[in-house]
Amino acid sequence: MKFHNIDHAAFARAWNAGVSTSKMADALGLSVTTVREYAHLLELQPRNHGGQFKMAAADLEMMWEAGMTGAEIARRNGYASASAIYKRVRKMGLPRRYKSGYHDAEQT
Question: Which of 41, 81, 86, 100 is deepest in the core (most CB within 10 A)?
Answer without folding.
Answer: 86
